[in-house]
């Protein structure tokens, strides 16, 4: 399907049920969702697509926005409201659309989401500056962060924010 400055491969199960969009991580393609597709209730309309340069989508030919591409997929399929399930970088894209256009997002299912441009405080105990890499742009005082091996001694655990109350995470489950 065409998007501003490029093309995306997309798969749509069709139907008129609640729309669920599956957003893959930045290290894979939409095929990671194949085992999930087999287990979803049939009344969902499921859309997945390969972001630029992954799977069946060609590499980007110009600068682009993942959030704009997600909005373009929804527009192309005439979808006004969707549940977004995102893994890693796909989770960051889902969060981005939820912040930019909350009226289009019925719900979020985030699996270890990557949150681009998150302003981490310098004393964040769960991240540290990476200074050991020799790859250009990584380490040597750059702002790229690497995960610490675990919480530092004496760190408190985050409080539990709540649960689904025994209900499934997706509406209608």
Structure overview:
- The chain has 173 residues and is α/β, with parallel strands linked by helices.
- It folds into two domains: 2-118, Alpha/Beta hydrolase fold, catalytic domain (Rossmann fold), CATH 3.40.50.1820; 120-155, no CATH class.
- Helices cover 16% and strands 22% of the residues.
- Helix 2 crosses helix 3.
Helix content: 10-25%
Radius of gyration: 18 Å
Structural class: alpha/beta
Number of strands: 9
Class of the largest domain in CATH?
Alpha Beta
Rounded mean pLDDT is: 78
Number of domains: 2
Beta-strand fraction estimate: 15-25%
CATH topology term of the largest domain: Rossmann fold
Q: Would you identify the regions where 5 or more consecutive residues have pLDDT less than 50?
A: 129-152, 157-173
CATH superfamily of the largest domain, by name, is Alpha/Beta hydrolase fold, catalytic domain
Name the strands of the widest sheet in spatial order: 3-5-4-6-7
**Which sheet architecture does the biggest sheet show?**
5 strands, mixed
How far apart lie the N and C ends?
Answer: 31 Å
Coarse morphology: globular
